[in-house]
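WARN no homologs supplied; continuing
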Amino acid sequence: MTTTLTPALREKIENTIRFLAVDAVERAGCGHPGAPMGLARPALELWNAHLRFDPADPDWPLRDRFVLSAGHASMLLYSLLHLFGYGLSMEELENFRQLHSKTPGHPEYGDTPGVEVTTGPLGQGFAHGVGMALAGRLARARFGEGGEGPGHHCVYGIVSDGDLMEGVSYESASLAGHLGLGNLVYLYDDNEVTIDGPTSLSFSEDVQRRFEAQRWHVQRVDGQDAEGLGRALAEARDEVDRPSLVIMRTTIGFGSPNRAGLSKAHGEKLGEEEVRLTKEALGWPQEPTFLVPDDVRAWFSERSRAKTAERSAADERLAAWRAASPERAAAWDVARRQALPGDLAARLAEGLEDKADATRKHSGAVLQRIAELAPWVVGGSADLTPSNNTAISGSAPVGPAAGADADPFAGRYLHFGIREHAMGGVTNGIALDGTFRPYTGTFLVFSDYMRPSVRLAALMGVPSIYVFTHDSIFLGEDGPTHQPIEHLDALRAIPNLTLLRPADGVETAAAWSWALQQTAGPVAFALTRQGVPALTRDASFDLEHVARGAYVVSDPEGPPDVVLLGTGSEVALAAEAAAKLHSGGVSARVVSAPSLELFAAQDASWRESVLPRDVPVVAVEAARGTSLWPWVGARGLVYGIEGFGASAPHKRLAEHFGFTPDAVAARVVAHLGR
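OK structure emitted
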């Protein structure tokens, strides 16, 4: 028998959600109770009547996705996950914001079942949700048929005033509207309150007109009107050509006699007396805390079973699609597994052994091979495609540029426009969907714009790939505004991010092979604008050495007096400097270190075989080189750049900054005291 959701039961359920949040924040001594209190009604309407999910299988691929971009309202999400039966226990709610709990202060992907994305930095959830929606449309175009198959889900989210103020949301909304992501629906919590006070202190734009100008479908509804919200959500789901924004006027701290509608309800606990008054005002028992009434528990159990039954019906339709479209089904399975050939590195490196070129161009050539071997790889660039060499030959662009009669989502190449902020978040969202492996491209210096998204990918362990080109002063005439100096160090400082700076075509191919095969975190490439020679390596070289982070390129006949360690374009420079040193009676080993992170992960025997303890190390990198100091030791030297670059042809810059074989050799001799 189905329990009717009467107004009285709805109110009791909403108050359950509100006071789970209030009690959790009170016990933790900190948190954000106001947003969950104001959003209890709209969130219940969304999750109960519109969101498709199976609590027994949080990773069910046909589920709708829910993004709480306003991550400070985390207890709203945790309460719903607990009540719907995601396996988030009451003990976890009671341990809100405590060490090792599944209920951290902001939702963290991988920590809590049902959390689709790590949110907290405002605007990032917005951008990541756009990527999830884009992945869904790409999947539908490739694998769906006759209205069935994968990719027919929606991405829903709750966004706040703060999300809409952050610049990343502007870029992401613009891109979503341009692409026509009709499977994206955001609820805007228009409560007119920020931490400093009313939004009128700093925010007076017409949000409706802004989003309409960005080609969104926009509706307004009272956040306490459940029926009106239900109609708006149904209309939004039926709008297939535009993303939808539902603007909801809500009251932060709903029910609190002295905090409702005020900034004090946002980022601090209500306090014992105000909790008492709020429970009294809403007719809620003072004790026990963390109360879930029996009839509320029973209703959620019933709804959870109904959600699982809906999933079973969807799986039956999916089975029918598999039978009717076996080739598409097989291709979807391959994409979900992200299967690769066992000899990937060798196939990508073939023919590059003796080829001199810029590593960005080697990367572009390798990408064409990847496109054939891994059809689930998709990518794009921030309006720098010819410079980044990120295009996939033969692929139509994604979006309206595909043509009037073409499916706008059938292609594999994304023109992000000049939107690095959005590009980073959207890329992560595609990766989170789990069907495609995304890559993006821009200049290394503009990784600054993407850094919040790169950091989140590392925090989540999401395998996004960032192709950063023009990786040093040697990009030349564009000058110091475009010449990265501190950026290699800055990226290496992010935990769980692997930076790969290959020295030639072979290393570039091996680096791409490693990046595609790993799934534990993001990868960043740093690639040259200028041409670099193909390295001459010792006969013992194996492609797998690149994946070990650092290896010996060449050795002198006898014991080395010094190790010259280079990264990227400076490996060839180190080899030339070693030849100069040899003529002066100094024996030098040359080491290439494409990835300091991978090298640090090797066992001590490998590291010492490459960098012997009793031999001084001189590391050469056309950047600050701060991250190289741990590898050179007390007797070593980092040969880098202390200031910014300059505008000139790259060969002239090499002379000016001392990145020539003669200059490096002379500095090594001086350092050794010869």
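The mean pLDDT is 97.
OK
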